[in-house]
Structure formats: C-alpha cells, structure tokens
Write a structure and sequence with these properties.
By secondary structure, the chain is of the alpha/beta class. The chain has 16 helices and 16 strands. Helix 4 crosses helix 7 and helix 14 packs across helix 16.
C-alpha cells in the first residue's frame, strides 16, 4: 500500500484509511464522532473484538490526523493479506455472510446497527473472517428499516444462490459487479424451482420485482416502520437462507487431481521432503503457492509458521482446501481462487479501489509445483516470459520442471501440434538463470521431474 489515503477509501464521509511511514491508520471525521463513541461506550466493540469478529485498534489521537476534519485517529491491526470476494470459494463467502449477520444481531442487542453490508468490509486473518470497517456502525433508531438489506442480498445471498443452484462459476459476477450481483440478474439466472424455497422467493425474486416496479417511479417508496423484533426476524430469515445453500466441490477439471496423480508413494514423499528442505533454506515468513490445488504442499509452509496463500483456479480444489483449513483451524493457510492466466486486475474507480493481484506482492517465497507445463504448453507462455514474471513475485522460487516426456505433458500435447521445440530442461535453466541464481537442483525419484530452488538476481 502506498503512502497517503488508501485508493479504495474515499467514499465514506465518516472517515478514511491512510498510511504514513509504513503504518496504517483510520481517520474518524468529526461528523462520525457520535457513532464512534456509541460503538466504544456500548460495549459492542469489546464484544466483537473478544469474539474475533472485528479487527482491534488502538486510539492514537487526532494529533495524528491526515486532514483537519479529524475527531479521532485509530491504528487498526494490519491485515496480513488483502483478498476480495471474487477470490473466495463458496464456503468462504458463506462464512463471511454468516459473520455479517452475527455482527448485526450482536449490534442490535447493544443499540447499534450496521449501516452497510459490503463483503469488502470483511477479510481473513488468522484463519477466520474478521470485519475491518470500524465506521460501519451507527446507533439504531427504533422503527427504521435495515438500510443495508439490499446490499447484503447482492453481495452475499445472490452469488451464493447462483453458485449453489446454477453454476459455481457465476460467483465471478462479483468481479464485474463490485456492488454485488444485481437482484434482477440473479432472479433471471436462477432456476424456476428456486422460487419454491420461500427465503429465496422473498429475498431475491420478489425483492428484484420490487426494485423493477419502483425503478421508473419519480417518488421513492416510503419505508414502513419496522420494529426491533421484526428486524431480528429478517436477520433470522437471511441466516436461514444462507445456511441452507450448499455446493458440492465436484465436477471441475482438477477436483480429483490428487487421487489421479501418477506419483508413487515414494516419489510423493521424496518431493515433500525436498520442498520442505527448500522452504527451510528460504526461512520465508510469506509464501505464495501457485497452482496449489487442495494445499498438500502449501501446508509444508503453513506448518512452519509462514503466512501461506494457496492460489488455484479450480473452485472445487479451493473449496476443499478451505474446508480442511477450517476443520483443522489452520491459522496460517489462506486458500484463494486465482487464474494465473487472467489474475485479478485493479478494479473500481481509477482501477485502484481493489488492488491488482500483482500489487499485493511480492512474497518472499513462491512455490510453483507441477505448474510450469500448464503455463508454457497449455497456454503458450514462453519460458523467458515466465522467468521474468516469477522474478516480479518473489525473492526465492521453488519450481518444478516437468519435461516433455512426462505423462502429464504428453496428455497436454495429445490433442494439439507440438510447437514447443525449446521446451526442455536446458532451455528452462537458460531462461530462468537470466532472472535467478540456481541454488539447488534435485531430481524427484521415480519421475523425470526436477525441483529447483532459485534466488532472484539483483536488478542490473
């Protein structure tokens, strides 16, 4: 993150996030002092922080303000890696939705409410979802409807329903629609039988019809008063709708990859030993595993205490990885969806509200295991281009070279012409040595593959 006001923190008049001398702060403007004081005095802040639902902060005083409009400045606990909803698997988005509703329910008990329900207000820290926008809380006023209801349905319920009922790939609509999937679009894409579930009928289909009805009206509808108990009933209904949605991680290209791998047990164990020893040599605190599948090798890094982000393009693999992380309460491993051939770009206003994937690096160590042949052969990316790309990402690179004779490469070439005469170990080493120094090369027993530990060269 660059010094100054965060590019994605300009829309809320209550305050903004900024960075000074490498430290992250949040300025609370004078106009938000009542809401902030209510949050702190009501006991809600202590309750949410104690439950691990809200990022903790330290008050540093208005003297640290970035602008003259400050009432208070706080220093929140830094999030170790920023991710976005379009990079989450089904269960991650579902858990974030349930955390949001839990926060709303707790807030109401303390006389507060969430004034928005953006999925971007949540991040993953220490293996669990945490709310990061301290300025999203406001005093609750009896009779007022929940202003964030539509936003919750668009950011959470609609993409979850599309993933569970239609196609998991439709969750990527969140990458196109940054304020959530429009309800009229979700209603058209969902199958007719989704209307037989009352919660989806009410919160998506009838909700969308209501929006269409009032879209061309010059006078907005007058909100009906809604009491606290009715509001709690709405939250209960939304929670039930979210919990009843499900998706089985199957049917995608790499869903059964681990079961189908041609590694012998000896080769698999030897590879794990080699990767573990290379990780020990790098002593990295931040590791990215590209093409991580279900995270078998990612865990070699996370179990060493490194913050490990496991990226894969397959929704089923990421879903299984996340469920295992959740079951095992792994606090160091973070599975995310990422297609390396089309990674998350800078999005939003001026392409800067949501940071591009590359701008969230570099990592100290990157692992690229059983990956390079997919990039070089399946996607026609030259070896020299790959080397320069990896040089941007890391200081150390643990990479597996899979030769053309390998069974998996032969499968890739089975349905296309072999136009890769330069895809061989010597060419690989020549290309990567322009950007890296080879610190170690080790053959994987009972295979034709080799593992390399590379260290980035200093810029010329």
């Amino acid at each position: 993150m660059i010094e100054g006001i965060a590019p994605g923190s300009f829309r809320d008049p209550s305050g903004f996030v900024f960075q000074r001398d490498g430290t992250l702060y949040r300025q609370i403007n004078v106009g938000a002092h009542d809401a902030y004081d209510s949050l702190m005095s009501s006991g809600l802040y202590d309750e949410l922080v104690g439950a691990g639902l809200l990022v903790p902060h330290v008050e540093v005083g208005a003297a640290e303000a970035y602008a003259a409009s400050a009432y208070q400045v706080i220093r929140p606990e830094p999030i170790r890696f920023i991710s976005y909803p379009y990079e989450w698997c089904f269960s991650q988005l579902q858990d974030a939705a349930l955390a949001t509703l839990d926060i709303v329910r707790r807030a109401l008990r303390r006389g507060m409410i969430l004034k928005d329900a953006s999925a971007y207000n949540l991040q993953w820290q220490g293996g669990r979802v945490v709310f990061i926008d301290t300025l999203s809380f406001a005093p609750y006023r009896e009779g007022e409807p929940w202003a964030a209801y539509r936003q919750f349905c668009q950011h959470f319920l609609a993409p979850l329903a599309l993933g569970g009922y239609t196609d998991i790939r439709l969750a990527q609509l969140l990458r196109v629609h940054l304020d959530g999937v429009p309800l009229d679009l979700a209603s058209r894409l969902l199958p007719w039988h989704s209307r037989l579930r009352f919660s989806l009928l009410a919160h998506i289909h009838l909700h969308a019809r209501s929006q269409r009805y009032f879209a061309d009206r010059t006078v907005a509808p007058t909100p009906r008063p809604i009491g606290r108990q009715a509001l709690l009933a709405l939250i209960d209904s939304l929670e039930s709708a979210v919990r009843r949605l499900s998706w089985r991680p199957q049917g995608t290209v790499w869903a059964e990859y681990e079961k189908e791998t041609h590694y012998s047990e000896r080769a698999r164990d030897a590879k794990a030993d080699l990767v573990g020893a290379m990780l020990e040599r790098t002593r990295a605190e931040r590791v990215w595993d590209l093409g991580a599948n279900t995270g078998v090798f990612s865990r070699l890094a996370s179990r060493r205490g490194a913050l490990t982000v496991a990226f894969d393009a397959d929704p089923a693999a990421v879903e299984r990885n996340y469920r295992r992380c959740r079951d095992e309460r792994d606090t160091h491993l973070m599975p995310l969806l990422l297609d390396l051939t089309n990674p998350s770009p800078g999005l939003g206003w001026a392409h800067a509200e949501r940071a591009a994937w590359l701008d969230r690096g570099p990592a100290q160590t990157v692992m690229a295991l059983a990956l390079i042949h997919h990039l070089a052969i399946a996607n026609n990316v030259p070896l020299a281009t790959l080397a320069a790309f990896f040089r941007r990402l890391c200081t150390h690179l643990i990479i597996e070279f899979v030769p053309k004779e390998d069974e998996k490469v032969q499968q890739l070439l089975a349905s296309r012409e072999d136009i890769f005469p330069d895809y061989h170990a010597d060419a690989f080493e020549d290309a990567f040595q322009r950007c890296f120094i080879i610190e170690e090369k080790a053959p994987i027993p009972e295979t034709q593959r080799s593992l390399y530990l590379l260290r980035a060269r200093e810029p010329a």
